[in-house]
């Protein structure tokens, strides 16, 4: 199909989800059929061969090592401030390097069989494709996945801080000064029209802020500002901080 890892095939893991993505032209129907079959194998037929697992250890370790810079150290220093009183504070998505070095294929297979269950999955198809045809392909390839007993999803209690807090992070190798303002918001579960509208309103607010800031930067009004962002991020199932950030490059 001419797909390349990184460009067309990719995956990522966050605090509460693992996402596999494939982008491909929809002009050839056989491509979509092949991709559906691939997703079926990913969902139920991973083998965890020892040679492949050992090779992946090096990939993950190098990815972890490549991020050991000022930006990473700043992020690490910010985690106790943002993730206070949550289990996510002690659990980074990339995992612990000791675990990466010692985990066995059998342990990975056990985890895979426990969590990779149909009731834990959401399958999304987006593109110029007939919806009925896509649904038929999904049913043909994924409806027969065995539904074994999956691990129970637990929501851990979280104690939010109900007062103004501030934090100063210094790193002599960091060439960018930044100011960030965080607002704690309830996590919105988008499952009806009203929650969809609420999420859309917040998205519009974020876009307006970013657009206005970029206009001021491009006009030269903010000469030392290198960029600014505003967005809402999900840190755990209860709290979602909306943050505004402005960076100033040292001269």
From TrEMBL:
Q: Where is the Peptidase M16 C-terminal domain?
A: 103-219
Q: Which GO terms describe its biological process?
A: proteolysis
Domain annotation Peptidase M16 N-terminal: ranges: 6-99
Coiled-coil intervals: none
Q: What Pfam family is a match for this entry?
A: Peptidase_M16
Annotated keywords: Hydrolase, Metalloprotease, Protease, Zinc
Kindly list the GO molecular function terms attached to this UniProt entry: metal ion binding; metallopeptidase activity
* InterPro entries registered for this protein in UniProt: Metalloenz_LuxS/M16 (IPR011249), Pept_M16_N (IPR011765), Peptidase_M16 (IPR050626), Peptidase_M16_C (IPR007863)
What does the similarity note say?
A: Belongs to the peptidase M16 family.
- Indicate what this protein is called per its UniProt record: Membrane-associated peptidase
**Natural source organism:** Escherichia coli
């Amino acid at each position: 199909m001419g797909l390349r890892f990184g460009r067309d095939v990719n995956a990522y893991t966050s605090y509460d989800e693992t996402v596999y993505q494939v982008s491909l032209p929809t002009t050839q129907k056989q491509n979509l059929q092949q991709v559906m079959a691939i997703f079926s194998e990913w969902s139920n037929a991973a083998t965890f061969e020892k040679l492949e697992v050992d090779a992946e250890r090096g990939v993950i370790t190098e990815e972890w090592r490549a991020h050991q810079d000022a930006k990473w150290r700043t992020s690490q220093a910010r985690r106790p401030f943002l993730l206070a009183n949550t289990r996510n504070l002690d659990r980074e998505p990339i995992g612990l390097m000791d675990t990466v070095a010692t985990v066995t294929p059998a342990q990975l297979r056990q985890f895979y069989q426990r969590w990779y269950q149909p009731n834990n999955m959401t399958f999304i198809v987006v593109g110029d494709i007939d919806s009925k045809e896509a649904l038929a392909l999904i049913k043909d390839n994924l409806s027969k996945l065995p539904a074994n007993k999956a691990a129970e999803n637990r929501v851990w209690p979280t104690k939010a801080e109900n007062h103004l807090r501030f934090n100063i992070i210094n790193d002599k190798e960091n060439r960018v000064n930044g100011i960030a303002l965080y607002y704690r918001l309830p996590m919105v579960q988008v499952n009806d029209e009203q929650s969809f509208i609420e999420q859309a309103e917040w998205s519009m607010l974020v876009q307006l802020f970013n657009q206005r800031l970029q206009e001021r930067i491009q006009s030269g009004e903010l000469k030392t500002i290198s960029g600014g962002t505003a967005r809402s991020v999900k840190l755990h199932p209860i709290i979602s901080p909306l943050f505004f950030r402005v960076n100033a490059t040292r001269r």
